């Protein structure tokens, strides 16, 4: 997962804030990191993107993909959600640093109501974060549409959108937090200019059993003409050469497992997932795109 261009505060670096009036300045900061905005190498202050080692694939962290995705629920009537929406559910997931795949000290999780996309007042939510453990836990209101705002010192923030409310305890997929240096490296790799006034979508597919799977293509209903698709292949980003605006990804997702779009307008839009083999639609979700990175789960409806 990549492409966020908002930089958290660090020594000798540019400031970061989620507030809209500071997004533009923070984004500009990341775009000039390679020119010496932050102190990267005490001897040279020069960052060489090709020397960055990208984080491992899911198999290397024990998060194996299923042997075959289960799409047996497609075309079937959607199950009704439980009527009892009281209480909380526990969501557990690995939250690690991209390169090392190790836990980060100082990780924070905020639970936000999707009615208020800028999250001015996070919901009260119990979290369990142990410095030397990859997995973190958060209590989420049962049956309520929420998203998570994930932060850690020295990394860029990530917003995680679930595809609907949660009704039961769940174990989620790994979220890898990026440093500004790795972000610049990934952007440089594809020669995609990042617009600081727009957002980035990072999308992954889930099958009927909730497993993260490969073999997906995605479409967004964005008429701006600015969104540029990309897909991670074998753990590295790939895109058309040269990169070109489109509302449809053209490279099939693998077990990395992220695909998405760069330079997406800050607006509400719908993301649709399709099986690459036969182009059946397997899921759709509507999100409010925020500045920065928007991690989005797409799965068959009511399968959380």
Structure description:
There is one protein chain. The chain is mainly beta. It has one domain: Immunoglobulin-like (Sandwich). It has helices at 20-31, 180-190, and strands spanning 88-97, 108-113, 127-128, 135-141, 146-151, 158-161, 170-171, 175-177, 199-206, 212-213, 216-220, 228-233, 236-238, 259-264, 268-275, 281-288, 292-298. Strands 2, 5, 6, 9, 10, 12, 13, 14 and 17 form a 9-stranded mixed sheet that branches. Strands 1, 3, 4, 7 and 8 form a 5-stranded mixed sheet that branches. Strand 12 and strand 13 form a beta hairpin. The chain is globular and about 50 Å long.
Short description:
With 304 residues, this protein is mainly beta. It is 8% helix and 31% strand.
CATH topology: Immunoglobulin-like
What is the helical fraction, as a range of percent? under 10%
Shape: globular
The total number of structural domains is 1
Short key terms for the protein model shown above:
single chain; mainly beta; 9-stranded mixed beta sheet; 5-stranded mixed beta sheet
Topology:
Elements: H1 20-31, E1 88-97, E2 108-113, E3 127-128, E4 135-141, E5 146-151, E6 158-161, E7 170-171, E8 175-177, H2 180-190, E9 199-206, E10 212-213, E11 216-220, E12 228-233, E13 236-238, E14 259-264, E15 268-275, E16 281-288, E17 292-298
Parallel strand pairs: 1-7, 1-8, 6-17, 9-17
Antiparallel strand pairs: 1-4, 2-5, 3-4, 5-6, 9-10, 9-14, 11-15, 12-13, 12-14, 15-16
